[in-house]
Amino acid sequence: MTQSEAYDLQTQRMTASQSNQKLFGRFDPIHIALAVTSVIFLILSIVFIILFATKHDGSSGFLATGFSQNKTDDVSSELKSLLKKKYTVNSFAVDVQNQAVSAVFSLRDSVSASDVQKTLSGSETVTQLETTYGDKATAVCRQQQVFGSTALPATSSKNPQTQTTAIPVSQLTTVTTQAPPATIRYCDNTAVNRDIIIVVDMNQLKKTNNDEKMKSLHDLRGKLVNGLIFPQANVLLKAVVADKVQDISNSWTNSVDQLNKDFDALFAVAGTTETLSLDFDTVLKNGIESFRKVKAYVPGAIFVVTDKPLNQVVNTKARESGIFVAVTGVGSNYIQKYDIYSDAIKSYDSWTDLSTADPFQTFVCQFYSLPEAPAMSRYAIPIEELDDVTNSSKCEVLDIIIAFDTSESLSRIILNQYVEFAQNFVAQYKFRNDDYTRVGIITFTDEANEILSLQSGNNLDIVSNTIGQVKYTGGLTDVTNALLKAKSLFDTESDNTRPSRVLIVLSDGVPTVDTYQDEINAGAQLKSIGVATFFVGYSSYNDDVKKELGQVTNPNYVFGDTSAASFKGITEQILVTYPCPVAKCVTAYYAVEISEATDAYVVKNLQDVLTISSKASTLQNATESYQLITYNDGAIHVFPQGDASLPKFQEAVQRIIDDANFRSSLRSGTTRLDTAINQISTELENQAKRNPRFSANILFFGQANDAVLYPDVSTEEKKAYLVAASSNLKAQTGQLIYVVDDSLDKDKFGEDLWPSVTTTDRIIKNSDNVEASLEKSDFFTTWGKLSCSLPPLQTCFDTQLDVAVIIDLQNKDYVFMNYITKLLAQFSAQDDAHFSLLAYGSRQTTVLSTLAAHSSQEIQDYSVLFEEWRNGSYFTTPAPSTSTQKPANFWTNDLYLVDQNTISGVFSALGTQFGCGNYNDNGDRLFAPNLYIFASDNFAAYTNNVWNDFQTQVHNRFGCYDCPGTPSFLFLSRTNAGADTTIGPTLFLSDTDLDIDYTDDTSTQANINKFNGIINSICTAAYPTCATYACVNSN
């Protein structure tokens, strides 16, 4: 598609006009009048209350929305009464239209929206009530026109002859943003595709207030109903009554109504049996059996609610079956006992505290965002630190127990040396949850005591502080007891997913209670479970002690003192014994449509997947992963779960080929491709969060005929949806999106829309030999180049461009300014691209750097120049007799208004650099295209009049004479607000996006891909080199 086809504004306006005619044609004048009246009420109320709140420093404005079947007066009376019980109400207005409630009000003093939400949650007349601040009220009520969102592109009523040139959307890497949700669901309103079994212990405990418990469960029911998003979430409710686990739900629940009914059934079976403990093993067995019967291929979670301790040792290992286990309840002493059998626990002092905190909002999202169950982990090992070959203590995955001898065979002086040694030793390792190193601490004399568990020792500060609290106690020495204590802790606190285990014994090693033979026997037990045991003396071990300890452990693991040589030796021995795991950060995704296509088509595509993946495996190093994604208009399904090696992947694909019933369970009759792409992007984003070195490509098998795809909207609208959806997928895959196209005849089934998802050279028609067709593309070549290393930052050379970077920042943002500077530094500025820096907004519009200044050093100085402009020191000239240092004015966040006069000033300043009178080889070059990059965190404050003035200024300044080249526009936004898309595209940059420093472990493939996408967009876009506007009213 050419640029002129993609950005034909006149066609967009005609389409929008026709769409509007259809929209209003469905309503009669009475309904329209009612709607207009309601909107006018809401707008006037919002304006009034926001104005009141802003005129009174001690006031806060709010908008509350919900649903009610009651009359307006009843709703108003109740809500106002609830507010007056806690706050001073300055002003208040309510409107109820078609059961939709909108209440706007202001309250005295500074009040948080969350507190108001809690207050209004007691309403009996309004359901699904949500509260937001007044200054966000209009955002709740309107659809944001943001480039790259799933909303349709904004249209303009401006003169159809006025046209700006924008960089084609398909060439840009953007993120998908959506309008603020009216209801806050779990996981930041992200639909969680999980099956959750909730087991509630309904037995009574003598000291428990059962009425409080039942009220708490009722409240939890309400929060679950409001928090989960159905039908993506499925819930099976169970109860523990007496000594049995009963099924409350007859089947998996995926609707609000059914979940409410299931909880009603739960409350009806409330038992009167008093018990002292919970049979947790039976609970887990029962849950696993439920997953095996109905949900064998869907990730599962078991949430248990109880107020009782464990009654016995738990042998059922649910986590090894890939099930996330979480326990919540009352009584920290009880609930802590479940820790070693669970992925997450949360305990509370009372049932009221539990329902107020809502532990489910943490459990659901914790499972969603980062499953910790070993068998469910996408990758068997954590992130590689720097590249494919790094091997250092920073990337090891270790469980270390340090045993301090505090007996009388030492002294306080020696123990302090041990403490310092241990603190320095653990500091060289990396701690992040359970991804890397964990450290447990025990102290021993003739008894051994654990003072820090491995589960708690996954934070360096906690570990170092605990070591610092070890004190000399005196007493006898029993090294054997310490060794056996460590073995017991490894057995209970570590598992086979963390086989790298180290014990460091800081002691003279000489027994006074036990014998060396006892120590040798205990050492053998540690060896049997894979523990490397190191002994560290305080001065030196004599030969006899060395000989004895060399039988307890490997003789190379015995070090006589805490010297630097011992420190280095222990570190190296551990690294040799337990080297860093090889990172599985390269993944091949195969996305196969299973909708209205016949079984023969689906099976054929799956067989092609097996063939292609076999060839792809020969181009990597056997550490890569493979994933199959099936999609249609419902949810996506990812296979396999857990081990994603090639054998397990092909086993999962073959299972779908062989099992027609299972294949049928994945089928849906329609396809919503843009939604499927968004879901796939989310899946890849989650992998990138777990592994910053994540890189992937994706190969789709499916059709994209316009007349078949949903939703049933115009072709241009579908294209806009697909472009917006695919933009984020491009960021995650570095543009490596390929398609085996099953689309049918255009005349009968409509236009093939795959070109809206990826480039045409990466779309091949389905054939009898798909592998051979792919070999003619760059599919296998690019796959073979993927690795755990971050891609290099792209450069743009030999491209003639004259660029203005125009910046408006309300807040100090050094990282953003450095990002812009780094962006510009990727161009060969000396000979090819010339840059001019302008600042506007909070101060007088100023040209900080002219097009004539385009050396690398001048570009590096841009962020410094802007800071001086922003704090005012740029405008200050020091007196000759004083210091040459400029005054250190502070950055302020004083509000200011960007209006039409401001924009007029910006274009006037641009006129001093670009256009007639500025043409020369060191300025605006005659045949170099012009690009204006606007960067801001303030676009949300720009009114429609401001955006309209962009069009007016461009038309007036570039439309009526021939010499200036028509500028193209690109907007970089630090918020979710962007420019009118008829002017140019907006790229949205979050704090995470700005991290492009590949020397640390936080920058991701997606970050670098997005940065490179901007470079590529600017470098390869087809810019005009002359004015394209028709001359209007010119003589």
Q: How is this structure best summarized?
A:
This protein has 1035 residues and is α/β, with parallel strands linked by helices. It is 37% helix and 17% strand.
Molecular shape: globular
* Helix amount: 25-40%
Largest sheet: 7 strands, mixed
Structural class: alpha/beta
Number of strands: 29
Average pLDDT for all residues: 78
Number of helices: 33
Pfam family, one: VWA
Organism: Caenorhabditis japonica
Domain VWFA: 399-574
Keywords: Membrane, Transmembrane, Transmembrane helix
Task: Please describe what this structure looks like.
By secondary structure, the protein is α/β, with parallel strands linked by helices. 37% of the residues lie in helices and 17% in strands. The chain is built from 33 helices and 29 strands. The strands form 5 sheets. Strands 5, 24, 25, 26, 27, 28 and 29 form a 7-stranded mixed beta sheet that branches. Strands 8-7-6-9-10-11 form a 6-stranded mixed beta sheet, sandwiched between helices. α28 (814-825) links the parallel β24 and β25 (833-839). α17 packs parallel to α18 (543-552) and α20 packs antiparallel against α21. The longest helix is centred in the N-terminal third of the chain and has 27 residues, at 29-55. The radius of gyration is 33 Å and the shape is globular.
